[in-house]
Write a structure and sequence with these properties.
Distance between the termini: 36 Å
Radius of gyration: 16 Å
Number of helices: 2
Number of strands: 0
Structural class: mainly alpha
Length: 65
């Protein structure tokens, strides 16, 4: 993941991409570029969620001495 976007920023941009794709009207190349950007943003969101899950799991793991 090369971008330093927060989960919220990536999710908001992804929502914009989806809206643009759903509205149509662009060229095939524009649609493909939007799709690719959407894939990147989805990966960023997933990585952020995975990181949050790992932190929660670590925080709630019972201590073993």
């Amino acid at each position: 993941m090369s971008e330093d976007l927060s989960y919220e920023a990536a999710r908001a941009e992804l929502a914009e991409v989806v809206t643009k794709l759903e509205s149509g009207g662009g060229t095939l190349e524009e649609a493909l570029a939007l799709w690719e950007r959407g894939e990147q943003l989805a990966a960023i969101c997933q990585a952020r969620l995975d990181g949050a899950r790992a932190r929660l799991d670590a925080a709630t793991k019972p201590a073993t001495d």
